[in-house]
Amino acid sequence: MNIAIVGTGYVGLVTGTCFAEMGVNVTCIDVDKEKIEKLKEGIVPIFETGLDELVKKNYQAGRLTFTTELSSCLDDVEVVFSAVGTPPDEDGSADLRYVLEVASTIGKYMNKYVLVVTKSTVPVGTAQKVKAKIREELDKRGFDMEFDVASNPEFLKEGTAIKDFMSPDRIVVGVESERAKQLMDKLYKPFTLNNYRTIFTDISSAEMIKYAANAMLATRISFMNDIANLCELVGADVNMVRHGISSDSRIGRKFLYPGCGYGGSCFPKDVKALIKTAAKNGYEMKVLKAVEDVNEKQKAILFEKLNNYYRGDLKGKTIALWGLAFKPDTDDMREAPSLVTIGLLVNAGCTVKVYDPVAMEECKRRVGDKVSYALDMYDAAVDADALLLLTEWREFRLPSWNVLKKTMNHLLIIDGRNIYEKEEMRENNFTYMGI
Fold it and tell me: What is the CA radius of gyration of the chain?
């Protein structure tokens, strides 16, 4: 089976590589010539566990190819996945210009039936816009050619994307025709041999499922952060509260961990887009507006704790940050709490020293020389007046407290992910604050 994937970002590259691993012939397309040339050399532009090896393996096997021209492969493929970016506009709505550019190109150059599948996260109604754009271009050519559109939202978690794609807990596909359904069923059959579920829906429902899922997960995070802040005021232990409520089978354990806010490419963007979609349809998403508001405030909580500890006198203080990525096992800093924290610390006159196992280059690109970059986690803590943990990387979980006691100027640790035990901190003479 021959397919094309337009867009070699996080979703597109993982999708294309995993399909190739299952024996599908995949052509990945991107307008960025430099990126395409690097991919041909085996240089992957994103950090994702296991992706480098699979890209090299399938490229060498000839199942995975890279090009900058979608038009060059349209005659040879049955399915085209659109996995281009949908960044938020200034008003929070999803920017569909790249999605519609792909549709326009398909309409200009297709010469036979093709199934056009939207893989990007897009608002409800986008598939119909894609369909209209393709039809518009076909009409300009005087062609009355059959094609289908479908929606196939992704549910990949950064850091475990390969595993998520190869062993999905569900595959959601929105279709309008039996032909499209059969094509998607054939394409995903290798992934369903172990009884993983494929859920076929109408297209609008498939588009909504992605947003609703991310909005629910974001809601659970903001809910627990709200509860954690109240627990601190009334003297309750949020970890005990979490254990208590997660034992209810109706609630469960996932996404109930309090912290310093969620970030990344999905939750912030998708919550904003869903709020905007509702507004365009005359409805106010009051719960999601609260979710977003809680999260934005939560991103500043470590700074607030630090500022209160030093009674507003932070000028000249040296602050160490452990973790820059929005979560472990990725170098993604989009909407990361670290960016808010760095901005507040710099504005307060602090010297900021940072360390992250993989996101240092990304931080340099985003932040530049506003901070200093440590060689390792202990180098970051040298002469520090406080150590702030923002990302729960495994290497941060069991540090040498003796090394930190010898190198830090003041033994203050503010734990934004609650990975340390209060009693252990006190036994080691650290002042400890968590969420």
Answer: 24
What's the chain's length in residues? 435
CA pair distance 324, 356, nearest whole angstrom: 6
**pTM of the entire predicted model:** 0.88
Write out the E strands in 295-399.
Answer: 318-322, 351-355, 372-373, 386-389
Average pLDDT of span 308-335 = 96
The residues with which 172 forms a beta bridge, in sequence order, are: 199
- CB-based contact 22:54 (threshold 8 Å): no
Question: 412-423, pLDDT tens digit by residue?
Answer: 999 999 999 999
For 223: left if phi > 0, alpha if psi spans -120 to 50, otherwise beta; the answer is alpha
Nearest of 71, 58, 65 to residue 40 by alpha carbon: 65
Grade residue 74 by pLDDT with cuts at 50, 70 and 90: very high
The residues, ordered by sequence, that sit 6+ positions from 221 with a Cβ below 8 Å of its Cβ are 255, 257, 259, 261, 262, 267, 295
- Where does residue 252 fall: left (phi above 0), alpha (psi -120 to 50 degrees), or beta otherwise? left
| Active-site option among 18, 73, 266, 363 | 266
Strand order from edge to edge, sheet including 64-67: 64-67, 25-29, 2-6, 79-82, 115-118, 148-151, 170-174, 197-201
pLDDT one-digit tens code per residue, 163-211: 999 988 899 999 999 999 999 999 998 887 766 688 999 999 999 999 9
Domains of the chain with CATH codes: 2-201 (3.40.50.720), 211-298 (3.40.50.720), 301-433 (3.40.50.720)
350 flagged as catalytic: no
